[in-house]
Amino acid sequence: MAGSREIEQTAAQWLARRDSGDWPAAAQAELEAWLARATAHRVAFVRLQAVWRQAGRLQALAAGEGGVPARAAWDEVAPPRAPFTSADAGADVGEDRDRAAPPRADALTFQPRRAPARASRGPFAAAAAVAVLAVGLGWGWLHYGATERASYRTALGATDEVALADGSRATLSSDSRIEVALSGARRRVELAQGEAFFDVAKDPGRPFAVEAGARRVVAVGTHFSVRRDGADLRVVVTEGTVRLESEPVGGHPQPTTLLPAGSIALAGPNGVLVRSVAVEEAERYIDWRHGFLVFRDTPLAQAAAEFNRYSARKLVIADTAAGELRVGGNFRWSNAEMFVGLLEQAMPVRAERLPDRIVLHSR
């Protein structure tokens, strides 16, 4: 997949060619095919087109249609401040509150105008000049200011895989929500609740960060999941390496933890605990993507809590003896009733079935 810089350069070339005056139907068809190939193409084209239109005053100057505008008038070239919404990208593009200020056109230095013969170079040369200047004016805005924002969530008992504008993919577990903010300078996802698995598109120039409370998981291009349980966080890495960072505590910086593939990190108020296992074992923690919960000598109380993440009809442990029983196997999280039936057959458990819950008693 082409990088963001290459995509935006291609979009600028399309804009210059379209405004050159030589624009047959075949060229329009080629442009539409390029736009249809990827959401990132459409977003880049629409952004640059906005900058291009704002640079109309520069196009008139390059074509020899007037003198240099008054210095104050150049403020019109600055990128529009109103948020832009792209239906294709499913995101709002607006200002990022901590971005660098966009470049001002009134800070540019212009060479003295030469003889009118300059205009004989033709409309394509003028359009190309505007393309270079429009990209120059908009580069800082596109790469450091404009941010694509999107929000995704799943209902209880549902999972969903979503494609992000940078080429990454996120799979949300049951009752989960993420807030996505992507710009040319950085990629940030907030895990507001639940769990999500990320297949991150490689882009060394834009680290991919998942924030959850006081923790942040940073990657360049890898596969990992992040699960949030109140103040606790679980990170499972199945490919590549990620970096687990924590906010300072009492003004004191916290150590950074590197997690290679096969790492299972549990982060809580008392610090970070990391286990290194085979990748195949780490992957069983994310089998929920395929509809399964996998238990290996797991306390019944813990297994019941996992099922409760996916169903409104809860499994309730009636007594300590029942909760301490150990279970193992692969079970569909959508069929808690079958799990309970197997418990009754194989273990000293009695199930009391009520409309809103199933109470598990030891016997």
Question: What is the topology?
Answer:
Layout: H1 4-18, H2 25-37, H3 39-54, H4 56-62, E1 84-86, E2 91-94, H5 123-145, E3 147-153, E4 160-163, E5 169-172, E6 177-182, E7 187-199, E8 208-212, E9 215-219, E10 223-229, E11 232-239, E12 241-246, E13 257-260, E14 263-268, E15 271-276, H6 279-283, E16 292-299, H7 300-308, E17 314-317, H8 320-323, E18 326-332, H9 336-346, E19 349-354, E20 357-362
Parallel strand pairs: 7-8, 17-20
Antiparallel strand pairs: 1-2, 2-3, 3-6, 4-5, 5-7, 6-7, 7-10, 8-9, 9-12, 10-11, 11-14, 12-13, 14-15, 16-18, 19-20
Helix pairs in contact: 1-3, 1-5, 2-3, 3-5, 4-5
Features:
3 domains, 9 helices, alpha+beta, 363 residues, 15-stranded mixed β-sheet, Phage tail protein beta-alpha-beta fold
Explain briefly what this protein structure is.
The chain is α+β, with helices and mostly antiparallel strands and 363 residues long. It has nine helices and 20 strands.
Put simply, the count of helices is: 9
Note poorly predicted spans.
Answer: 57-113, 115-121, 137-144
Q: What is the residue-averaged pLDDT?
A: 80
Q: Summarize the helix and strand pattern as letters.
A: HHHHEEHEEEEEEEEEEEEEHEHEHEHEE
**Percent range of helical residues:** 25-40%
Beta-strand proportion? 25-35%
Tell how many strands the DSSP assignment holds: 20
Query: Main beta sheet, described?
Result: 15 strands, mixed
Ends: how far apart? 59 Å
Count of all domains: 3
Q: What would you call the structural class?
A: alpha+beta
Radius of gyration over alpha carbons? 28 Å
Shape: elongated
Overview of this protein structure:
This protein is of the alpha+beta class and 363 residues long. The protein folds into 3 domains: 4-145, no CATH class; 148-283, Jelly Rolls (Sandwich); 291-362, Phage tail protein beta-alpha-beta fold (3-Layer(bab) Sandwich). Helix content is 28%, strand content 33%. It has 9 helices and 20 strands. It has a 15-stranded mixed sheet that branches. The chain has a 3-stranded mixed sheet with strand order 17-20-19. It has a two-stranded antiparallel sheet with strand order 16-18. Strand 1 (84-86) and strand 2 form a beta hairpin. Helix 3 (39-54) packs across helix 5 (123-145). The longest helix has 23 residues, at 123-145. The protein is elongated, with a radius of gyration of 28 Å. The N and C termini lie far apart (59 Å). The model is unreliable at 57-113, 115-121 and 137-144 (pLDDT under 50).
